[in-house]
Every structure is written in C-alpha cells, then in structure tokens.
Write a structure and sequence with these properties.
The protein has about 400 residues and is of the alpha/beta class. The chain is built from 13 helices and 10 strands.
C-alpha cells in the first residue's frame, strides 16, 4: 500500500507500486482508495479471498472507472479491504480481518465495501471506490457516517471488476461530504435524466413502519420540515420484494460467482456457505419467475417515480452492531435491512446516502432514491436537504 499509516486496517498490505495520475483536473489534490475487486495496474486483485489472490496475476491494465478518476487528477493511495468475494454486508473477513469503524469503534464497519467506508470515514482517502450489489456501499456509508452512492445500474463501466451478480452490480463511491462526492461522480457519469427544480418528494410508509421507534424518530428528524407524499413502492409487500431480490440475485450469482467457488474448492466461512448453496439450488424456473417479478416491480417503481419523483428513505433499519453480537443478530440483520435496500437494486435506480447524526452511539444515515439517470441532481438535492448533524 502507498499510505504510510493505516490505523483502521482498511488497506491491503500489497507492495507499494506507484500509480500514475494526471497532474491536474477536477479531482486534483484528492486521494483515492480502491476496493480490491477492481483491477489496478501493478497490483493483484484479491477480492477478499486468499485463493482468488493466489490465482491473480499482477494486472497490466486498470479498470476504466478507476482510470477515469486517475485521469481526472485523483491520487491513488492503495487497495482496500472487502468482504470475501464481495458477498456479505458486515465487513468481517475471516482471512484478512475487519477494518475499524472510525466513527463507531467496537462496531462493524459494514460490507462488502468495508475498507472503502472505513478509509473514507477515517480521513485516509478523500474518495473511495466500492461496489454495491445488495447494499455494499449504502450500508457501510450509514454504519460509518459518510456520504455514498449506488448509481443507476449500468451507467458506470464494470470492466476490470470482479462480477458477483452483474444485473445488480454497480460501481459506487464514498466521500465525507456531498461536494466531494459530486465532484467524483461527475467524472464518471452525466445527468442523463436530471431532476426538475422542484421534484415531487415521496416517502414509503412500508419503510418507515419497518423501523423501531428511535430509528423512525431519527429519520423523521433528518427530514424535518420537508413535505413528502406517501407512495406505495411494494405492490405485493416487502416480503415478496425481498424474495424476488434473493432469487433473481441468486440466479445471477449462480452463473457468475458460484462456479468459481465450486471449481476452486475454496473453504467457505459461515454466511457465504449458505448463500452459495441457496443460489446453487435455484432451478431455471425459479430464476425465470423471479426475473419476471423483478421486471414487474421495476415497472411499478418507475411509474410511481416518473421523471420527477424522489423517495426520502432510511438506509437500513438500525445502526451497526458489535462483532461479538449473538448469531441471531447476524442472521437477521441482513434479511431485515434488505427489505429496504432491495428497492433500488430491483429497479436499477440511484440511491444517495448521507449522515444524519448519531443514534445510540453510532452513525445513522438517510437517503434519497431517484429516477434512473438522475444521479448528479439527486446528490445536489441531498446536499440541499442535509441538516447540520455535527
């Protein structure tokens, strides 16, 4: 790694290889950390997996998304920890350890973009690149108290990036403030469908009802003074949407990551073993039904938002928990939180997250979900809605 001091155990300890960046540009003066599922010339790509690392050659080309940030002047300072094969949301890697959550020491940083969230929150890099398939930027951003975005699916190249479930995978970003996030995101995409000056503000009663009393109060306080109309985002209920997400993402993973797991005979830690088995067990009929349900869900959400609707939403249902929490916390948290996280994934929409203060001793984030292609104007809107939470 190129960074001299890593107090939060965010960076992979690779031999330091300088990476050339442009001397000037819109990101000049900003440092850049990159999740270790992206190829960077001069480095291996380990994907949080010892076998994947052992099989990796030293890359001779950099993933286009990362190269664009370098060409804009950002200075690379190292590759960042990820959950194994980017297939978890807690940040606990049995092989390489867990990054420290700088704003909530003693609690998980979230994953799979664990190093990206922690390095950004701890001030070790100004911009960090993660990936978001089922929540792997949004959850760590909320847990660590940073800004983050899952962009509109398909707008940012994923060439040179490990696939998990490509119809869900996105290149996401973290920053400590909205202005920096906007600068970096503007390098990678343009507003193909900008929001109007006065978008319709919406909220999902199902999401708010999914929160505990403290969590709901914190979310409502973050949006205090903002008038939003109720919108039904879940035509068949939250459980049905989550089931559709599990089966459609599992079908994608069955094709793109499960073969590596089985062919390499890699040892499986708790969590990923069950997810791999569940994905492998899906039949072609299961996957086809889920894809049809996903298409219908996306059409419903697109119609509800139109080109001017923005949903004010919590990110997850609770703050980060301790790594020694009971197993039922680990087993249940993902299933509960992804009933909210799955909306943007199923519909392929952008979702921007920002800090909304502290709740029970840990950061709490809120978010906006916008129409596809509204990414930049969605960040600008979030900047106008953000309250002083220092």
């Amino acid at each position: 790694m190129l960074i001299e001091h890593d107090p939060y155990h965010c960076y992979m300890p690779y031999p330091p290889v300088p990476v050339e960046n442009a001397p000037d540009g819109p990101l000049a003066g900003l440092t850049l950390g990159v999740k270790d599922i992206y190829d960077v010339a001069g480095y291996r790509t380990g994907c949080g997996c010892p076998i994947r690392l052992a099989m990796s050659d030293i890359k001779t080309a950099t993933a286009p998304a990362i190269q664009a940030l370098l060409d804009a002047g950002a200075a690379f300072n190292g590759k960042l920890h990820t959950d194994e094969l980017a297939w978890s949301m807690y940040g606990m890697n049995a092989h390489f350890g867990m990054p420290v959550n700088p704003n909530a020491p003693g609690r998980i940083p979230g994953g799979s973009s664990s190093g990206s969230g922690a390095a950004c929150a701890g001030g070790l890099a100004d911009i960090t690149v993660g990936s978001d398939t089922g929540g792997s930027v949004r959850a760590p951003a909320s847990f660590c108290g940073t800004w983050g975005i899952r962009p509109t699916h398909g707008l940012i190249s994923l060439d040179g990036v490990m696939p998990l479930a490509p119809s869900y995978d996105t290149c996401g970003l973290f920053a400590r403030d909205g202005a920096t996030l906007l600068r970096a995101l503007s390098v990678l995409l343009s507003d193909s469908a900008p929001l109007p000056d006065a978008p319709r503000l919406l909220k999902s009663p199902e999401m708010f009802d999914h929160l505990g009393a403290d969590q709901r109060a914190a979310t409502e306080a973050a949006f205090d003074g903002v008038t939003a109309r109720d919108v039904a985002l879940y035509p068949d209920g939250m459980d049905a949407a989550y089931a559709t997400f599990l089966a459609s993402m599992g079908g994608d993973a069955q094709k793109h990551i499960v073969p590596f797991i089985r062919d390499s005979n890699m040892p499986l830690v708790r969590g990923i073993d069950g997810r791999a088995a569940a994905a492998e067990a899906l039949s072609a009929g299961d996957i086809a039904r889920a894809e049809a349900q996903r298409t219908a869900f996306a059409a419903h959400v697109d119609a509800a938002l139109g080109g001017d609707g923005v949903v004010l939403a919590p990110v997850v249902h609770d703050v980060a928990f301790a790594p020694d929490a009971p197993l039922e916390i680990f087993d249940n948290f993902r299933h509960i939180s992804q009933r909210m996280l799955c909306v943007a994934g199923l519909a392929g929409l952008p979702q921007v997250t920002w800090p909304a203060g502290m709740l029970n001793g840990a950061p709490w984030g809120v978010s906006l979900i916008g129409p596809r292609g509204s990414d930049l104007s969605l960040v600008r809107l979030a900047m106008t809605l953000q309250k002083d939470t220092a």
